[in-house]
Amino acid sequence: MQFLKSILDLVFPPRCEVCLSPNDKVICGGCAQKISFLKPSAFIHSVGEYDGVLKTAILKFKFKNKTGLAEPLGAFMVKYLSQNLDMNKVDFIVPVPLHSKKFLERGFNQSELLSHAISKHYNLPTVSGLLFRVKETNPQFELPRNERIKNVKGAFEVRGANLLRDRNILLVDDIYTTGSTVSECTKILKTNGAKNVHVLTLSRAYSI
Ligand SMILES: [Zn+2]
Q1: 23 phi and psi angles, rounded to 5 deg
Q2: pLDDT-above-70 percentage for the chain
Q3: Domain named Double zinc ribbon: which ranges (predicted)?
């Protein structure tokens, strides 16, 4: 396998997925440095602005099937968490789910892959079979602000509420836009018994 990898590296030298310069890392050091962390607020945490390096990486990750980006992007989330949230306060991680149809289309849930990267680092479980998206929703960014809340209303469902009772959850998503998706998820997790829900998104979009 190592031999095959060497041959492949000769034919297709590994490149940074963002700037495309030859590099062994999926996101090179130069690109990584361009990401500046945002300041946290009480329960909402976003690593960086949905722009530049993060935006390019997220678009490739989600829409060009570059799942290898989950690991380095998850590492940014871990670094952010280590500076901004006491992870002893978290019992487990819940990724914002995709509707089953969207999941089949894409083949993966980007938030779930990011959660796994965080799980591995903190040795905390990612629990995916708890929160479900039962209503097909339009992508939030395609909608005017006032319709986004309506769009996600009743979109999520909890199955297995006993797992949630008095638990502290880290809810993970890729992009925070108006916050209507994560607040709808938070609401339903709390209604079903969760004690605290901390929200972590990889990026925060201010202008879409
Ligand atoms: Zn780069």
Answers
A1: -165, 145
A2: 98
A3: 7-40
In the 8-state DSSP scheme, what is residue 107? S
pLDDT band at 4 (very low <50, low <70, confident <90, very high): confident
Cα 31 to ligand 1 centroid, rounded to whole Å: 4
Residue 13 CA to ligand 1 center (angstroms) comes to 14
| Ligand 1 center–CA 117 separation, angstroms | 20
Give distance in angstroms: CA of 41 to centre of ligand 1. Answer: 29
**Domain-wise residue ranges, the chain:** 1-34, 38-204
Please tell me the distance between residue 18's alpha carbon and the centre of ligand 1 in angstroms: 5
Query: What pLDDT, on the 0 to 100 scale, is given for residue 142?
Result: 73
Instruction: Write down the residue that tokens 């903190």 correspond to.
Output: 122
Give the distance (Å) from ligand 1 centre to CA of residue 66: 15
CATH code reported for the domain at 38-204: 3.40.50
Residue 137 has which token pair? 């929703």
